[in-house]
Amino acid sequence: MIQEMIPVERLKNRIGALAQEIVSEIGPDFVMVGLLKGSFIFMADLTRALSRAGATPQIEFIRLSSYGMSKESAGEVHLLGDVPTEVAGKKVLLVDDIADTGRSLAYAHALLAQREPEGIWSCALLDKPSRREIEIAIDFTGFPIDDVFVAGYGIDYAENYRHLPFIGIVG
Ligand code: IMP
Ligand code: MG
User: Fold this and answer.
1) Residue 157 CA: which ligand 1 atom is closest?
2) CA gap 79, 168 in Å, rounded
3) Which distant-in-sequence residues (6+ apart) come within 8 Å of 10 by Cβ?
4) Atom from ligand 1 closest to the CA of residue 102
5) Average per-residue pLDDT for the chain
6) pLDDT of residue 101 exceeding 60
7) Atom 16 (ligand 1): residue with closest C-alpha?
8) Active-site annotation, residues
């Protein structure tokens, strides 16, 4: 069962505004690094909103493993594949679907810092501040939400629901 929480129109409007915020803070030139798989739809929509806002971002992805098939985080983050090399000397915008404990974004931040970019900013479509276990600065947040388990719009529950165009609460 999934109950709609953030409808398509609200996602679209907020992402448009987020793109404006990003461009006014970091300028038009940067490399977006999306965390797979959860960010894939957000990345696609944010990229096009950024383009409309005048930005010319490059696109990279990294794949981290965390949740597995349950609603609880495994508590340990691993990298699957390589860290993009194209970020050296550039501005980097890390993009994730949800900031939960903060482990994934903290881990990705540390990985990318090794490539010596000019700077790293973080963007999460959803933020669950009450769940944070690791202090991380999230520079751009779409929607702060309560401690509920959500899916849709690229986000899964045991690999289901990613295809939904809206974000809903998994009951
Ligand atoms: P963190 O490392 O604990 O911050 O977890 C971040 C990752 O956990 C996100 O990128 C999501 O993939 C996953 N996650 C956290 N909360 C949810 C949820 O409510 N539904 C589905 N995935 C979630
Ligand atoms: Mg994820």
Assistant:
1) 21
2) 28
3) none
4) 4
5) 94
6) yes
7) 100
8) 100
Altogether, the residues listed in the chain come to a count of 171
Q: Which of 3, 63, 64, 67 gets mutated to test ligand 1 (max ligand atoms within 8 A of its CB)? A: 67
pLDDT digits 0-9 by tens, 66-90: 655 666 666 788 898 888 888 999 9
135-138, Cβ contacts within 8 angstroms, sequence gap of 24 or more: 135/102, 136/99, 136/102, 136/105, 136/106, 136/109, 138/99, 138/105
Per-residue confidence (pLDDT) for residue 46, from 0 to 100: 98
User: What would the two tokens of residue 87 be?
Assistant: 């970020």
Tell me the per-residue pLDDT of 133-155, one tens digit each, with 9 for 90 and over.
999 999 999 999 999 999 999 99
Which residues does ligand 1 sit against, CB inside 6 Å?
Answer: 35, 38, 66-67, 73, 96-104, 149-151, 155
Report the candidate in 51, 41, 1, 26 with the shortest Cα–Cα distance to residue 117: 26
- pTM comes to 0.95
Q: Is the pLDDT of residue 65 over 90?
A: no
Structure tokens at 144: 């702060």
